[in-house]
Request: fold
Amino acid sequence: MKNTPFIAFLLAVVCIGVVNFQQLNAQELNPNKVTYPSYQTESRTNIVYPKVSGFTVLSCDFHTHTMFSDGLVWPTQRVAEAWLGGMDALAITDHIEYRPYRQYTNNDHNTSHEIAIPAAAHTGLILIKGTEITRTQRTIGHFNALFIEDANKIAVDDPKESIKEAKRQGAFVMWNHPGWAVDSTYIKDFQADLFKDGLIDGIEVYNNTEFYPRVLSWAIDKNLAIIATTDVHGYVESGTLQKNGVQRPVTLVLVKENSAKGIREALDSRRTLAFFQNILAAREDVAKMFVDANITAKKVHSDGKTIFINVTNNGSAHYEMQSGNKLYAIPALSSVIVTTPETDKKFINVNFKNIYIYENKTLAHDLYFN
Ligand SMILES: [Zn+2]
Ligand SMILES: [Zn+2]
Reply:
């Protein structure tokens, strides 16, 4: 028969199909137990930024809690949440003094970090050892000690001695939420004394849901690292923030080396930006460097009267940019067309309305196009 090869082919297909179907049936219809595959359904939301003057931008949260103080999650859950949320580095900073669940955990202040170590290693998340020194907010305040060796030795009565012990261990000390639970933000005697002795290295301009514009000015004037943190106790808020296109608060750190050592060097050199509620807060030179890497401008057309410029945001931050009397929203990884009257100049004067470089001062910048 002329069609023999074709029929043989068809039979083969049918037979293979039957065999496969029977194999499938044998697996699925096991009357004792049907095991379904385990899907890896959780995936990391990547936060992307181009290199900034040769520095890599890392997303870091330097202030979080677990059940080993007054947090509601286990340390491994804190690590998983940070990694899935796009963080590159995390510090678990449980309170030394406030541990309502201590009868269920233990009295060793190093435990939450130790539990988190393998979980962080499995994802490549950089884990920084820290703790929160937690004293009366109105008179003394709360301080995170990062890059410490032994949190137990920091548990001493005198608050200044506690901070000095952290320093002896080589800690980076930051003043937490200076405006939390107080009516007005000001520097008290205790903190003035710490500044005098050079014991404070960084400061939170943003904590959880609070922005302290005045504290940004202190950070600039006193040359402190500018920090934003979640200070999360339960889960990091995602629902409404996500719907509004807002990321979790984060400190962007410009590192030479992608490691804990690299983060420490960058913090000591004050190369940080606080990013929260789609607002950036940074010292002016760092902000300009960041914008120059993230925002690129290219002339696409000129009709003799008007120049049309494509302005592209190459990173995950959001910008609100004023040019002339127009305000442009430039979401993460998107472009807008900016128009300007015909000129010989190769740049436009813009103002980034969501980049604060001082209390009530936003970043004015020349945006070069080619
Ligand atoms: Zn606190
Ligand atoms: Zn805290």
About this structure: Confidence is low (pLDDT under 50) at residues 1-22. Residues 4 and 10 are 10 Å apart (CA to CA). Residues 4-28 form the longest helix (25 residues). The domain at 44-282 is CATH 3.20.20.140 (TIM Barrel).
